[in-house]
Fold this sequence. Notes:
By secondary structure, the chain is α/β, with parallel strands linked by helices. Helix content is 19%, strand content 31%.
Amino acid sequence: xxxxxxxxxxxxxxxxxxxxxxxxxxxxxxxxxxxxxxxxxxxxxxxxxxxxxxxxxxxxxxxxxxxxxxxxxxxxxxxxxxxxxxxxxxxxxxxxxxxxxxxxxxxxxxxxxxxxxxxxxxxxxxxxxxxxxxxxxxxxxxxxxxxxxxxxxxxxxxxxxxxx
Length: 164
């Protein structure tokens, strides 16, 4: 079963536990002027994740689905969510765009590393290459080594909340 926890005003962590896995999987939902889902989790848990999302916001209001990188726990349910949320567009890095386009048959919104997406009263700074070596070179391949999302107010009144 997916659980929903508000971790900051209008920001929700949806956690999914799979019985055969030693870890849990989290995705995030920003309920703002432009509701944004961050990751979708696996397609096998779409129904329970969909129910969790719907407990916060109507799927028809979701405008963006951020895909940090192309793995089943990040975007396995992407096609299901795009079908259920007809106003939503997938958001990804330039490196991930060909995989997302091939997987969904739709053009994603492609954003650069460190680009910000405004959801209304909040902004999301996307950090596709969050893990770097001491020399500033990305660790791993394709920018998938470490991903982070910094989420904070459009007009910062204090420290930003980090979702990693």
